[in-house]
């Protein structure tokens, strides 16, 4: 359980804590201080914020904190005396001589349960947005249609058996989303209120439900066990792994196969892994895996991460039959990828197009031969050879050429060759995790990573000693120039197992476990500031961040038997 006491009355504290309940890609999410992002909403489905929030009152006193263009309304926070997640968020209020306990549950539909202790009247005004998650809205032409026990607004239906609905349509104007304002995005909107649900009583329970047309409910509710297990489940939607919440809620090829070993293989979810492999294999084109569906084939590393994840699948599941079914796709990648639109073979190594690696902003183009791409290339050649598949060059030829990456002057690896880039970056940790350095060089490189890149929450994307380092995240220019990424940490841990055995991964991962009670509650943020105190940034819940913690703690997936399809 994650629990907070009176400290939640501090708006700055409450703003930083966000809950996220997910079911098949739909979600219910907000901060403990109310909606601070346009992506927040109590019912978000199909890429649309349907029910934004609820304006709640107990005995005439407001319980819902909010921010407006003219200032903040913190009266609701003053009446909040505790919040816990188990995993449902439960809010405890006191007002007007009564106390109210509110539980938010989500299984594709929203259920809000109010347990009233003492005499009281509860009034709940639903606030409707009905817009895309990346938008804001100020004009409405919605029609609220009363139905037995509630109201229907477009695809949204709200009902209560215990509370009476009274139509009174109006607009709540100029709500302000503080996090979006700080990120430089549209951050003000109006919300549509169709009326109010009210009920009075003593020591009783009221329930309000909200459903969206066409959104199925899940028969299985999340358990109350491990937070990381629940977070891992939240990213799996059919045969896709969604990249992150809130704004990356779609499948990305690179992120999918970086994440798959931690999210699925480390947990024995082999049938789910097979479905993901099959989805992307069926869309292979010109040796490339789509980075975004349906037709973004601009990633030079996604095919190599696909093969890396498939090799890990084989190692842990021992499912040679499925891997054999992937053989035509493995052969196609090895045949076509080295002469594709984004990659070509040169001297046994792979050179790539600009902005085609995971560091894909204009500020880190990395055209040339990136260290991690070539480490994955060598691993792909070795995997193919283990299956009796001949690649365009032998693995030993590529591995011999890889020796050029060693930078004797810096005691670590070049991030890029042709042209050579000596900047100290974390991509070399992937090469070390794959055992591509001689023992002494591996130990030296680990020392540089430890001294210049390692933080409590992952690895910096650029050493603070380098020109261009940015210690505070501020958009694309800093995204890969100092910002810390948790997904890189398990590769550092794997490298320690090879070159400095005896290190305890639990010590390195402890800050990320503590982070589960910060930012996105029960999950792991996309990235962090490079400088202390390493404020969480980006998405509040990122697939490869969660996967990294799972994999770092449990080690590289290996052993076990393939599950049934």
Which helices and strands, and how do they pair?
Blueprint: E1 2-4, H1 11-16, E2 18-23, E3 26-31, E4 41-45, E5 48-58, E6 61-62, E7 66-68, E8 71-73, H2 75-78, E9 80-85, E10 89-95, E11 98-106, E12 110-132, E13 144-147, E14 150-153, E15 156-159, E16 164-176, H3 178-183, E17 188-212, H4 227-235, E18 236-237, E19 240-241, E20 244-245, H5 253-263, H6 270-281, H7 302-317, H8 320-325, H9 327-336, E21 343-346, E22 349-352, E23 369-370, H10 371-386, H11 395-402, E24 406-407, E25 412-413, E26 416-417, H12 428-433, H13 439-452, E27 454-455, E28 458-460, H14 476-479, E29 484-485, H15 489-499, H16 505-514, E30 527-528, E31 536-537, E32 541-542, H17 543-554
Summarize the structure.
The protein has 17 helices and 32 strands.
List keywords for this structure.
Amylo-alpha-16-glucosidase; 4-alpha-glucanotransferase activity; disordered C terminus; alpha+beta; Glycosyltransferase; 17 helices; 565 residues; 2 domains; 6-hairpin_glycosidase_sf; Beta-galactosidase, Chain A, domain 5; amylo-alpha-1,6-glucosidase activity
């Amino acid at each position: 359980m994650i629990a907070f006491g009176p400290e939640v009355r501090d708006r700055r504290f409450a703003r930083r804590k966000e809950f996220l309940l997910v079911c098949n890609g739909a979600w219910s999410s907000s901060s403990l201080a109310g909606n601070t992002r346009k992506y927040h909403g109590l019912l978000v489905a199909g890429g649309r914020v349907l029910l934004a929030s609820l304006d709640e009152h107990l005995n005439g006193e407001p319980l819902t904190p909010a921010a407006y263009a003219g200032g903040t309304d913190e009266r609701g926070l003053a009446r909040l005396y505790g919040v816990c997640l188990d995993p449902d968020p439960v809010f405890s209020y006191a007002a007007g001589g009564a106390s109210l306990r509110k539980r938010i549950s989500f299984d594709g539909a929203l259920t809000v349960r109010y347990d009233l202790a003492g005499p009281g009247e509860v009034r709940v005004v639903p606030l409707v947005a009905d817009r895309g998650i990346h938008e804001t809205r100020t004009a409405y032409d919605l029609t609220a249609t009363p139905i037995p026990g509630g109201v229907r607004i477009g695809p949204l239906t709200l009902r209560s058996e215990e509370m009476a609905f009274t139509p009174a349509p109006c607009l709540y104007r100029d709500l302000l989303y503080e996090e979006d304002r700080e990120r430089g995005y549209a951050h003000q909107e109006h919300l549509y209120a169709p009326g109010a649900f009210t009920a009075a009583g003593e020591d009783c329970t009221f329930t309000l439900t909200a459903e969206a047309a066409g959104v199925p409910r899940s028969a299985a509710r999340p358990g109350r066990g491990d937070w990381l297990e629940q977070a891992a489940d939240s990213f799996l939607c059919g045969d896709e792994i969604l990249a992150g919440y809130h704004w990356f809620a779609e499948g990305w090829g690179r992120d999918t196969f970086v994440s798959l070993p931690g999210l699925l293989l480390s947990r024995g979810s082999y049938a789910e892994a097979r479905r993901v492999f099959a989805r992307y294999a069926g869309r292979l084109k010109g040796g490339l895996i789509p980075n975004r569906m349906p037709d973004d084939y601009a990633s030079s590393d996604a095919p190599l991460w696909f093969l890396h994840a498939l090799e890990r699948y084989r190692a842990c599941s021992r499912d040679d039959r499925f891997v054999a079914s992937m053989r035509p796709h493995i052969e196609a990648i090895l045949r076509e990828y080295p002469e594709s639109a984004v990659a070509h073979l040169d001297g046994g190594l792979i050179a790539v197009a600009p902005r085609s690696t995971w560091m894909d902003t204009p500020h880190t183009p990395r055209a040339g031969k990136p260290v991690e791409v070539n480490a994955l290339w060598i691993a792909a050649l070795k995997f193919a050879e283990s299956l009796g598949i001949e690649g365009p060059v032998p693995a030993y030829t590529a591995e011999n050429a890889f020796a050029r990456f060693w930078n004797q002057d810096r005691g670590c690896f070049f991030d890029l060759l042709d042209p050579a880039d000596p900047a100290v970056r974390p991509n070399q940790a992937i090469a070390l995790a794959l055992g591509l350095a001689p023992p002494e060089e591996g130990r030296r490189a680990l020392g540089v990573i430890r001294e210049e890149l390692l933080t409590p929450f992952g690895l910096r994307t650029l050493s603070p000693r380098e020109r261009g380092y940015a210690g505070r995240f501020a958009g694309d220019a800093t995204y890969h120039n100092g910002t810390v990424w948790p997904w890189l940490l398990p590769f550092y841990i794997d490298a320690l197992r090879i070159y400095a055995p005896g290190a305890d991964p639990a010590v390195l991962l402890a800050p990320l476990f503590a982070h589960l009670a910060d930012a996105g509650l029960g999950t792991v943020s996309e990235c962090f500031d490079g400088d202390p105190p390493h404020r969480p940034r980006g998405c509040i819940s990122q697939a490869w961040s969660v996967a990294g913690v799972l994999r770092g703690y449990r080690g590289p997936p290996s052993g076990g038997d393939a599950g049934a399809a």
